Amino acid sequence: MRQVLMDLPFEENALEPYISAETIRYHYGKHHKGYVDKLNMLIEGTPFETLSLEEIIQKAGGAIFNNAAQIYNHNFYFKGLSNQKSTVSDRLKEWIERDFGSMKIFQKSFTDATLNLFGSGWVWLSANPQHHLIIESRSNADTPLLYGHTPLLTCDVWEHAYYIDYRNARAAYIEKWWEIVNWNFVSENLGAHLYLHFPCDDRSGECAFHED
Questions:
Q1: Among the three residues 79, 100, 128, which one is the final residue of a domain in this structure?
Q2: pLDDT at 57 over 80
Q3: Rounded Cα–Cα distance for residues 24 and 11 (Å)
Q4: The domain containing residue 55 runs over which residues?
Q5: Is the same domain home to 49 and 121?
């Protein structure tokens, strides 16, 4: 199936002053769109042409994988941003406190991971197959999907995500990124993980999930 560039869930200037409209124009309009265009060119006339994006990521290698994974990662990144203030759900807060000790410790650990990732890549908050939250540092186009993990949140630490606004000051970018995290999206992803593994009448997982 032909891959389509996602619609941004916000206006180009909606994330200012944290992320500028100029950055969004280049990041989304050039880089993200470029991955979509390149992937469609690469898969035309191949068996990958009929697969979903997630299936391509699981089965492909080389340039096809790189472009497919970058589309998926960017989709996730942009959906995880919002100019509307949001709060962590009770379930997500419970899991963060269980697996990291506190929200403050989690945010510091996540921030440290973004600053310590050498070169380009992504830092993720994911749920592993044991249903615990983990922080993953993945280089280049790597993604939690390859490891059976459920991604909940990601931060793009490729330089094109922040260089227009922050130059080489990755730490300043990360500090401001926390201000625009869409916690509703993160909480919904945890709910989807619970629903998949502990089915119930809604996507909260409240009716089926129990700690061992």
A1: 79
A2: yes
A3: 9
A4: 21-79
A5: no
Residue 204 lies inside a defined structural domain of this protein? no
Provide the strand spans (E) within 29-149. Answer: 121-127, 133-139
Q: For residue 139, what are the CA distances in angstroms to 93, 113, 122, 124, 180?
A: 27, 12, 6, 11, 23
100 and 163 both lie in a single domain: yes
Place of tokens 């994330």: 15
pTM of the prediction?
0.93
Distance of CA 37 to CAs 26, 40, 42, 46, 55, Å? 15, 5, 9, 15, 18
Instruction: Give the CATH number, domain containing residue 37.
Output: 1.10.287.990
Provide the greatest CA pair distance for the chain: 50
Cα angle value 92/120/93 (rounded, 5°):
5
| Structure confidence by residue, pLDDT tens digits, 121-157 | 999 999 999 999 999 999 999 999 999 999 999 999 9
Residue closest to 150 by CA, chosen among 212, 195, 211: 195
| Alpha-helical runs (H) found in 103-148 | 103-116
Predicted local confidence at residue 200, as pLDDT: 57
Please give the structure tokens belonging to residue 80. 């995880």
Q: Is the preceding omega at residue 129 within 30 degrees of 0, hence cis?
A: no
